[in-house]
Amino acid sequence: MIKKHLITCSVILVSVVITKLFICSTTEKNSPVNKPHFGNYITAVASENKGYNFADETVPVSNKKVSKRINVSLRKHRSDEETSAMLGRKASKLFPIIEPILVAYGIPEDFKYIPLVESGLKAGVSPKGAAGWWQFMPGTARTYGLKVNSGKDERLNLRRSTIAACKYLRDLKDEVGSWTLAAAAYNCGSPRIRHAINKHNKGNYYLMSLNRETAGYVYKLIAMKKTIEKPGSIVNQRYLATYVNPTELLTVN
């Protein structure tokens, strides 16, 4: 009698276990699984790649010509890894000095890339007579308060020349109407930019007919920005750890 009872209990227990296993299996099969949506990932990456701007002014990459020029400029900058690494090392030391001055004068941070494009962060003198981090010509430098004579050349002083550049850029923006055009005017002068504005391009740099150097100038700045700011770059690794007091930087002796 006891034996029969044990057999009956065993059968009941096995039945219960099998039933539970079946229920769990069915539940897992029918329940939604939180898998990553690959389509959303592609959209996010595409959106990131298309999110180009300069000085918070959008780059119209929907225009095929603009998109092509952006890509060409990026390839040129990223193909030379050695030069990019060298510029990154210099930028990591100098950006902490340049950035607070730009902020103090209300200049968009993206203008810190001008010295990279203009001089490669070398405070030398060009064959045309431009000199320093911001490549000022002697006349423009004097106009904006820098001493340039046989005994002293303040174009070679990073802090003072950056202050002068900020004043110059504010004037350029007032003259040509946008920060993107101010960057272009930094390269060729405001008269040429004003002359190039017409009813067809409506002052849109990317649609304007300009000389070859100026037409590619802002693209170079954007490519430099993307190259220097990419994840893992030397600038991202180093320069954020450096603190510079803006008040000290703006005190000119």
Automatic annotation (TrEMBL):
Residues in domain Transglycosylase SLT?
110-205
Similarity-based family: Belongs to the transglycosylase Slt family.
What species is this protein from? Answer: Mucilaginibacter ginkgonis
Ranked from the top, the taxonomy reads:
Bacteria, Pseudomonadati, Bacteroidota, Sphingobacteriia, Sphingobacteriales
Q: What protein name does the entry list?
A: Lytic transglycosylase domain-containing protein
